[in-house]
Amino acid sequence: MKVYDTLVIGGGQAGLSVAYFLRRNKLDYLVLDDQRKTGGAWLQTWDSLKLFSPTEYSSLSGWGMPKSENEYPTKDEFINYLEQYETRYTIPIQRNTNVISVSKENDVFKVETSQGIFYSKTLVSATGNAKQSFIPKYSNQESFKGEQLHSLHYKNADNLVGKKVLIVGGGNSGAQVLAEVSKVAQTQWVTLEEPSFLPDDIDGRYLFNAATQKFLEKSVDTSSGIKASLSNIVMVESVKEARKRDVLYAKRPFKSFYEQGVVWEDNTKEVFDVVIWCTGFKAILDHLRSLNIIEKNHIKTQYTRSAKEPNLWLVGYGSWTGFASATIYGVGKTARHTVKEISIELNKK
Question: How big is the CA angle at 47 (ends 252 and 18), to the nearest 5 degrees?
Fold first, then answer.
């Protein structure tokens, strides 16, 4: 029976980041990925998606992303970079492998998959958030006869021409989807709060630098008057173009659905053909359910290490698994720390 030092579940940016450091530490590991090719959750995103930081802030540890011809890299450019990264570091990945469940046998992890059973001394879960959509609940939502889809399933606006579309959710995804759909359809944008747009000359670089300073409890330069938040909207080219068309205006949330559309807080009704939810994602943790450590779709951690199952680490799920760990820029820091802990643990055995 083959027993790896470490198995990594998930071959997206988090899984590859962990694999890079496992390789550097000369550990015996394997990445299990349910996709047929490199790209992780990026394979599911809409066609025109652009990153909101230049290439030097859109790179994993060890090797920077090649310079893009665009100010901000496209989704396809980033996926191509991940493919090259995987090849460059000869990362062992088994594709088309869906992890069904994880259990423990004699202090070893038993990982049951669609391609057989694998064993390891330590385990990293890096399945992320971006393949399990979150849609908030609204009164009478099931009565709406139009189409509802999450941004996870939105690819382009080809089938929305001439329709009336409600786009729910702020942040960069909501703004970029609105910018594209509003070219071919009548749109209304709904956000919890008034959208916060960065100045044209400020992008994700500033956000990550300022947020990192705040995390490290260092003073943040606020002379520009800009508050650092990863929810700020970066003015990529498509969003700037939408501003010229005067479509970047949002209303506060409606109170319920009805058959043909939504009911606003003042009880007026408005007809919509389609609702696109840009409302975020939930952590993918079902494969760990047999370990009995999940509470309200959350696992208690000490940085990235599970508090109840100390030979399990979680990387890339957001702030509860390390600062900015769900971002390209931040995941390397949490991956490095994770592998350092794994190496120490394995040296005890």
Answer: 95
